[in-house]
Amino acid sequence: MKRVLSRMLVASGLMLGASVISSSFAAEGAATPAKPDATKGAQLYDQGDASRGIVACASCHGAAGNSSIPANPNLAAQSHEYLAKQLADFQTKQGADKPARNGAGGNPTPMTAMAQNLTPEDMRNVALYLAEQPLKEPATAGHEDLVELGRSIWRGGLPDRGVPACASCHSANGAGVPSQYPRLAGQFPSYIEEQLKLFRSGDRANNEPMHTIADRMSDTHIRAVSDFAAGLR
């Protein structure tokens, strides 16, 4: 049974939850969404749109998605499908009382307000712009005492706990798989750690397999693999 569950988890979409976005926007009415425009995305990212109450993304996530603040993740070089889906998941959908992505204790994150006025087109445009930007200042690992444990979990998982290897979906070098699994290499370790804990608590409820995986990990496991992922290149 454990073997079957592990295979299902690996196949579904693991670490920090990702998926293609086509179904997210199907309800918008267009059979085929317009091709994203990176130029428009760059303008919205850098300048925002005061007339619609949209704040410039760069004010928190840095120039071209290279953040200098660990609480605000690096977005450069991330899969555009993943970014667009996450932006949509920060929004409170019609008929829902809260978004799929929340902060600790189920409280709204700053992104709840930031993303609420974005259209699906806005999200696709910004996401494509960021996906085309290089990650110039990647974060690094910082805990030498956790390297071996982090490497073991990344490469082999935790078989006794039913946790699959992170590399099976996020690739050996942490680059992820475009349109399926997010890039974790060079991400701030504290941010990865926070997201795993939010998956574990259920406050981040936009990827059920990740809740199951994180729920089987201790704080030490989470810290070790988060630190290891940050140092991958």
Task: Please describe what this structure looks like.
The protein has about 230 residues and is an all-alpha fold. The protein has two domains: about 1-15 and about 140-230, Cytochrome Bc1 Complex, Chain D, domain 2 (Orthogonal Bundle), CATH 1.10.760; about 20-130, Cytochrome c-like domain (Cytochrome Bc1 Complex, Chain D, domain 2, Orthogonal Bundle). It is about 45% helix and about 0% strand. The chain starts with a helix and ends with a helix.
Count of alpha and pi helical runs: 11
Classified in CATH, the superfamily of the largest domain is: Cytochrome c-like domain
Q: Total number of β-strand segments?
A: 0
CATH topology of the largest domain: Cytochrome Bc1 Complex, Chain D, domain 2
**Shape label:** globular
Largest sheet descriptor: none
Radius of gyration: 17 Å
CATH class descriptor of the largest domain = Mainly Alpha
Residue fraction in strands: under 5%
What letter string, H or E per element, gives the SSE order?
HHHHHHHHHHH
The count of domains is: 2
Any descriptors?
233 residues; mainly alpha; Cytochrome Bc1 Complex, Chain D, domain 2; 2 domains
What can be said about this structure in brief?
With 233 residues, the protein is mostly helical. It has 11 helices and no strands.
Topology:
Elements: H1 2-12, H2 38-47, H3 58-61, H4 80-90, H5 110-115, H6 120-131, H7 147-156, H8 167-170, H9 189-201, H10 208-215, H11 219-230
